[in-house]
């Protein structure tokens, strides 16, 4: 309940988060939240503007005694990933997020929570509204469409911002200070084909992969979580090779930056092969569930009889599809040789759709090294072109190169240690896509850093924000603002 959230400490942060989460804000449909944040700034009597792509900038003068400090930009994105459980009825375009407290965590009922990046937005709102928080000249930058293309950051023109330091509040581990991130590119393969009539004496089956955790396709790609598209393809491959299974339709995955949780396929099998097919698929399900029993305890793979489809894929097209998907890289492609435990390059086979003579496969390829990003993108392109797909690269965005000599980093590390009994923060680059790399193209001299509270399960309905971590993070924010270096 909203009242339960509003009672949490720090109230300034959680109240603004509750206000924000009452406003629908799915990516690419941010009109309501743009209006909301503009009204917020104007009602405070602060200079407020919207740029030509929909980013909102609110300016607040320095608090008394902080006028001689470097001006700063505090930045978060307004949009959120819209994912829900199949059993949940929810309209992200008209409804606010329904939240509740579960121990030390804030969660949402059957949907993504929007803590990514709503807690960052709420932080900035609380500081803009406050009358007693010390801060230098402040520009609040609220970008749009971070989750599905970063078009807000890409469209922000140079010269609009005057700040010398940018605090990006989009990191999801409270002991981490981000100094770099991966870039990315969407790899989309498409083709058409002429459908074939389903062979006579065929039975129809619905195959379903569900119950996977899903999650962030950058921050969690190294965890080895199940990808519903790859698991479905594995079953289809085996049953085609042994028993001539024919595919009619596939619908797997959802958003490009979310590890696929579910996939379903409508297939047919000759009636004479039914007993052998059912025995084989039971064996395959048992094997896969055994492989993933510790990582994916709720994995559920089912098959059930349905009406036989009237059309199926031609055998040559089907064979090329399942072989290409088997060959296509999913998960970690290369670890960084320079930064311990950092994924350098990865791919997420995010979406597979086969329907009525059309095939569409969507991937998000990430890397902190441009040449490695394109190496993997071209490997995927080759796999899909071998099945006569047209392959498009789109949504390309750069990574953010680490600057270990950052002035704001040298301020933040000792503050963190002082607040946390001498414990050192983890200064690192991350495998997620942050807007810093893009913003840095038009603001190359701006000193940038990223940090945030603990958020788990981002981009999935299991997303949750840790209450005690938010309190730790809030104290860190206030101390950083008090200690921004003096202007030269």
TrEMBL record:
Cofactor entry: Zn(2+); Co(2+)
Keyword Protease found: yes
GO-annotated biological processes: proteolysis
Peptidase M20 dimerisation domain boundaries: 208-290
EC code(s) of this entry: 3.4.13.18
InterPro entries tied to this protein: Peptidase_M20 (IPR002933), Peptidase_M20_dimer (IPR011650), Peptidase_M20C (IPR001160)
A single GO molecular function term of this UniProt record: metallodipeptidase activity
Catalytic reaction list: Hydrolysis of dipeptides, preferentially hydrophobic dipeptides including prolyl amino acids
Keyword set, alphabetical order: Cobalt, Hydrolase, Metal-binding, Metalloprotease, Protease, Zinc
SUPFAM superfamilies: Zn-dependent exopeptidases (SSF53187)
One of the record's GO cellular component terms: cytosol
Family: Belongs to the peptidase M20C family.
Name assigned to this protein: Cytosol non-specific dipeptidase
């Amino acid at each position: 309940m909203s009242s339960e959230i509003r009672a949490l400490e720090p109230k300034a942060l959680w109240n603004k988060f509750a206000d924000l989460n009452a406003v629908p804000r799915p990516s690419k449909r941010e009109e309501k939240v743009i209006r909301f944040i503009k009204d917020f700034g104007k009602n405070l009597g602060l200079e407020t503007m919207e740029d030509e792509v929909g980013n909102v900038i609110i300016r607040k003068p320095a608090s008394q005694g902080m006028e001689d400090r470097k001006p700063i930009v505090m930045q978060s994105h307004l949009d959120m990933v819209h994912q829900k459980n199949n059993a949940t009825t929810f309209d992200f375009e008209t409804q606010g997020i329904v939240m509740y407290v579960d121990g030390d965590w804030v969660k949402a009922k059957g949907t993504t929570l929007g803590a990514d990046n709503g807690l960052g937005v709420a932080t900035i709102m609380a500081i803009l509204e406050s009358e007693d928080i010390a801060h230098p000249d402040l520009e609040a930058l609220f970008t749009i469409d971070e989750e599905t293309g970063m078009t807000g950051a890409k469209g922000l023109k140079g010269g609009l911002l005057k700040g010398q330091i940018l605090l990006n509040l989009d990191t999801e581990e409270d002991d981490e200070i981000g100094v770099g991130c991966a870039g990315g590119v969407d790899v989309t393969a498409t083709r058409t084909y002429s459908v074939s009539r389903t062979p006579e004496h065929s039975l129809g089956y619905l195959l379903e992969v569900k119950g996977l955790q899903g999650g962030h396709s950058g921050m969690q790609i190294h965890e080895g979580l199940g990808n519903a598209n790859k698991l479905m393809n594995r079953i289809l491959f085996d049953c085609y090779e042994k028993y001539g299974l024919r595919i009619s339709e596939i619908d797997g995955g959802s958003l490009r930056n979310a590890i696929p949780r579910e996939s379903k396929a409508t297939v047919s099998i000759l009636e004479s092969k039914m007993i052998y097919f059912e025995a084989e698929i039971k064996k395959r399900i048992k094997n896969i569930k055994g492989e993933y029993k510790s990582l994916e305890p709720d994995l559920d793979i089912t098959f059930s009889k349905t009406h036989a489809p009237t059309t199926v894929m031609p055998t040559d097209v089907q064979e090329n599809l399942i072989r290409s998907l088997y060959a296509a890289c999913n998960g970690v492609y290369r670890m960084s040789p320079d930064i311990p435990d950092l994924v350098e390059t990865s791919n997420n086979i995010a979406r597979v759709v086969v329907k009525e003579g059309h095939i569409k496969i969507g991937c998000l390829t990430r890397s902190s090294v441009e040449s490695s990003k394109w190496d993997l993108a071209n490997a995927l392109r080759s796999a899909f072109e071998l099945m006569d797909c047209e392959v498009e690269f789109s949504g390309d965005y750069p990574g953010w190169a680490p600057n270990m000599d950052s002035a704001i980093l040298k301020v933040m590390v000792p503050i963190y240690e002082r607040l946390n009994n001498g414990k050192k923060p983890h200064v690192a680059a991350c495998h997620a896509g942050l807007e810093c790399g893009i913003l840095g193209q038009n603001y190359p001299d701006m000193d940038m850093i990223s940090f945030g509270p603990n958020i788990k399960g981002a981009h999935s309905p299991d997303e949750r924000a840790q209450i005690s971590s938010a309190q730790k993070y809030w104290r860190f924010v206030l101390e950083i603002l008090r200690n921004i270096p003096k202007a030269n």
